[in-house]
Amino acid sequence: MRRGSGQAGDPPAVGQQSEPAISSPSAATWLVAWHGDLAAWLDQLGWLRTLSDRLTAVLGPVRERHQDNLVLELLHGGRWAGHPLHPALSDLPIGLWAGVMVLDATDRDPAPRRGLDAAGMLSAAGLLAAGATVLTGLNDWTVSDDQDRRVGLFHGLLNTAALGLQGASLGARMAGHRGPARALGAASLTVTAAAGYLGGHLVFTRGVMVSRVAWAVGPRRWTRALPEADLPDDSPIAVEAEGRQIMLYRHRGSLYAIDNICSHAGGLLSRGPVADLTVTCPLHGSRFSLADGCVRRGPASQPQPVLPTRIRNGWIEVRGSQPAPRRPASGRTQP
């Protein structure tokens, strides 16, 4: 086995010379590649990068100063909810404002009315729900990185614009101007849909806030990871066993092995500090117990896989959570 401390990237694909370049796709190719081009274009916007850097400079130190605050962890959803709250909360304003569109489309009363009608009530409820959605989204944004942070910022700006349009629609509705109110409401929902698409890109394409260790199960058999003499006490060491990155730690003669890739955003736990058998991710400060992998502090919401260890013939050996099935003498796998 060889040691490792970083994730290995896939080698770049080598295209055939006869195929068109990705930078100038044909019309057919554009239909299936435009979303990636859109994300790349957004990431190159100078003003967006500048704004992202300035907000990070302000909000980053605030988050680090208060990352032990229970309220901030609850806004993530964290270990108690098991996943982020923001995606679930975002369904509320979308659904409520869609209801406004349905009521407007089915309203046949031509007489102008002042005050809150049924559509206005849904619009106002959506504005209140959007406030909670904004808070959780901003909290999640502070623990994102690089392109994800910039695309996420544009997602937030679109939602802010949609919020303003919906507020203007509600004001026009209360004043009895139903025509402008309906137009502003339709514009708000359209912008919200565009923002929602970018949110889907972040989750399903980029894997933001998705567990990075959901499929980590190997190695299937006891595998040598490191000579015992190479693991000092109270010092984390990164190793690789059958392609899986693992952090080894020894304290007072007890061995601990935990998946080295942080479940929250893929940070390398071996580069973070360890205190009281708890490792802190160097990226966003999530803390995990070395004994059982449970989350001691967010923003991580999923526990960290731990691996069984043993010492054989001077080697530290590890095994994944699912051992390989035993084979009988006939060579067939037992049920």
Alpha carbon gap, first and last residue = 31 Å
Question: Roughly what is the average pLDDT, rounded to an integer?
Answer: 86
Shape: elongated
Q: Which ranges are low-confidence, i.e. pLDDT below 50, for 5 or more consecutive residues?
A: 1-22, 331-335
Largest sheet: 4 strands, antiparallel
| Alpha-carbon Rg, integer | 26 Å
Give the beta-strand count: 10
SSE run: HHHHHHHHEEEEEEEEEE
Strand content: 5-15%
- Helical residue percent? 40-55%
What is the spatial order of strands in the main beta sheet? 5-6-7-8
Q: In DSSP terms, counting alpha (H) and pi (I) runs of 4 or more, how many helices?
A: 8
Secondary-structure content class:
alpha+beta
Give a structural overview.
The chain has 335 residues and is an alpha+beta fold. Helices cover 45% and strands 13% of the residues. It has 8 helices and 10 strands. The protein has helices at 27-43, 46-65, 70-76, 78-81, 86-106, 118-141, 146-174, 178-205, and strands at residues 223-227, 237-241, 244-251, 254-259, 274-275, 278-280, 287-289, 295-297, 309-312, 315-318. The strands form 3 sheets. It has a 4-stranded antiparallel beta sheet, with no helix packed on it. Strands 1-10-9 form a 3-stranded antiparallel beta sheet, with no helix packed on it. A 3-stranded antiparallel beta sheet has the order 2-3-4, with no helix packed on it. A hairpin with a 2-residue loop joins strand 3 (244-251) and strand 4 (254-259). Helix 6 (118-141) runs antiparallel to helix 7 (146-174). The longest helix is centred in the middle third of the chain and has 29 residues, at 146-174. The protein is elongated and about 90 Å long. The model is unreliable at 1-22 and 331-335 (pLDDT under 50).
